[in-house]
Amino acid sequence: MHLSTRIRAIVGVAVTALALGACSSTQPTPASSPEASATSETRTVTDASGQEVTLPSHPSRVVTLSEPTTDNALALGVTPIGVVSGRGQQTVPNYLIDRAGDIPILGSIGTPNLEAIGAAHPDLILVDGTSVKNNDTETLTALSQIAPVFFTTQSGGDWRQTFTLTADALGLADQAETKLAEFDQHVASVSARLKDAGYLDQTYSVVRWQGDSAGLILKELPAGQALTALGMKRPANQDRDGEGHSEPVSLENIDQIDADWIFFGTLGKSSVNNPSAGGNTGVEASAAALEEAKNTVGFDSLGAVKANHVIPVDGSLWTSTGGYLPDGRHRLEHRGPVRPGFLSLMVGRCGSLT
Question: Could you give the count of Cα atoms lying within 13 Å of 102 in the half-sphere of its Cβ?
Answer without folding.
Answer: 0
